[in-house]
From TrEMBL:
GO terms for cellular component: cytoplasm. It catalyses: cytidine + ATP = CMP + ADP + H(+); uridine + ATP = UMP + ADP + H(+). The lineage of its organism: Eukaryota, Viridiplantae, Streptophyta, Embryophyta, Tracheophyta. This is Uridine kinase. One of its GO terms (molecular function) is ATP binding. Belongs to the uridine kinase family. CDD domains: PRTases_typeI, UMPK. Pfam families: PRK, UPRTase. Residues 268-469 form the Phosphoribosyltransferase domain. Pathway: Pyrimidine metabolism; UMP biosynthesis via salvage pathway; UMP from uridine: step 1/1; Pyrimidine metabolism; CTP biosynthesis via salvage pathway; CTP from cytidine: step 1/3. Its EC number is 2.7.1.48. Keywords: ATP-binding, GTP-binding, Kinase, Multifunctional enzyme, Nucleotide-binding, Transferase.
Amino acid sequence: MGSYSTSEVLNAAAVGVHHPALRSHELDLKGSMSGEELPTTSGLENGHQAPFVIGVAGGASSGKSTVCKMIIDQLCDQRVVVVTQESFYYGLSDEELVHVHDYNFDHPDAFDTDLLLSCMEKLKHGKAVDIPSYDFKTHKSVLSARKVNPSDVIILEGILLFHDSRVRDLMNMKIFVDTDADVRLTRRIRRDTIEKGRDIIDVLDQYSKFVKTAFEDFILPTKKYADIIIPRGADNSVAIDLIVQHIRTKLGQNDLCKIHPNLYVIQTTYQIRGMHTIIRDAATTTHDFIFYADRLIRLVVEHGLGHLPFREKQVITPTGSVYTGVDFSKSLCGISVIRSGESMENALRACCKGIKIGKILIHREGDDGKQLIYHNLPKDIAKRHVLLLDPILGTGNSAVQAISLLLEKRVQEANIIFLNLISAPQGVHVVSKRFPRVKIVTSEIELGLNDDFRVIPGMGEFGDRYFGTDDYQSSTPFFADDKNRVGLL
Ligand SMILES: Nc1ncnc2c1ncn2[C@@H]1O[C@H](COP(=O)(O)OP(=O)(O)O)[C@@H](O)[C@H]1O
Ligand SMILES: Nc1ccn([C@@H]2O[C@H](COP(=O)(O)O)[C@@H](O)[C@H]2O)c(=O)n1
Ligand SMILES: [Mg+2]
């Protein structure tokens, strides 16, 4: 296989695997959110399971980062975050810097393990943390930290991760990357001279003075703690496939879709995650927000239509052959929850020519949570399948109100398909418990709700961002389609 640069691997890993929305918050500590924690609530408190923690250890340049990248690539539909042990290197004092060639970077004492433990403790409890950034050129921790958010899977990677039993105890799975010493040395020489700009003589000196001995004294003895040993590192795709399968099985036990068979999360791809990254980014312009939200909405709508009943239908193709296909139900309508649900109407109209679209307005009155509902629904709605449109399923309150109204109007519960872009697990529980036959189709499941009952990580006030009425946008407001915002049936 081709060679990867470590920075490429880690960058790709970070970009590819963090929850898209969360990346935007990985701010420089000097930035406006300096030192603040994201308003994330505990995953555990929110009914989420603790993350699955994978430890990846092995000699320097054995291929740990490359193996992590391969695991992450295959887990593309999960929220995965990588934390490297090297982020926790103690910075060198000025005096130590003068004698840097005598410093042993491969000794367990070179790492601030207490800090690593406290960061991991927070992550495991569903809290965001600032992970220090380490500069291999200056041998110091740099000021800007990396904001890391809680995830389904945390991969901890580093040469001495299995040395301290407290760190080992954090892990659900321990992997040791076992690569021959000559291969590790060759890769190290290439990496340290090319990527770190070091002198080859210094690299060889450091290797014979510290790296080789530390491997034998501290790293190799920890191999016995591994659950899985991967010979040949990233070249061992069979081992990596098996690891990914195992992780999937473990994660699947907590899968919301398994608990709620009425929930459908569309199959994710990097395109979809990329689009989510854009629309969740607070800095995205209204124009881009509309463009990418529309693309995602279209996918959700298409998926939702796939749940409508159909009959077999045969047609004759231009080649005179018979094609056996299906004819789907035409007796349907869309109902949008004003105002953000109206953003989904265009996609529905584009997929179902001439479809009737009704509206529901849910109004929160005062603090007592009393809600008034105004509606404009097709008269024969009871006979129709209903595609209920609202981009965000948060607490589930609005959805329950809207669905209750539809049932009052004698729509069959099983004929309702609720389409949204993101769903909080709480909302899914509430809707599914009350209306188990309503299908929920979404494109991503969120971490949960914060203390203000806002979806986290979320994407802000969808209606304001889509219709350009938010006040934090720097760009000129851009209205997608004004007439859709006011016109009722
Ligand atoms: N299977 C492989 N084949 C070829 N080059 C590899 C392979 N695995 C890793 N490398 C290269 O070796 C170097 C060290 O790999 P890396 O994954 O960064 O190791 P570690 O994280 O264990 O130090 C990198 O330059 C990487 O691109
Ligand atoms: N300032 C430093 C800090 C560490 N190293 C070497 O990095 C190796 C660990 O990184 P891997 O990606 O290979 O796990 C380790 O062998 C240290 O010697 C360094 O050279 N300079
Ligand atoms: Mg590495």
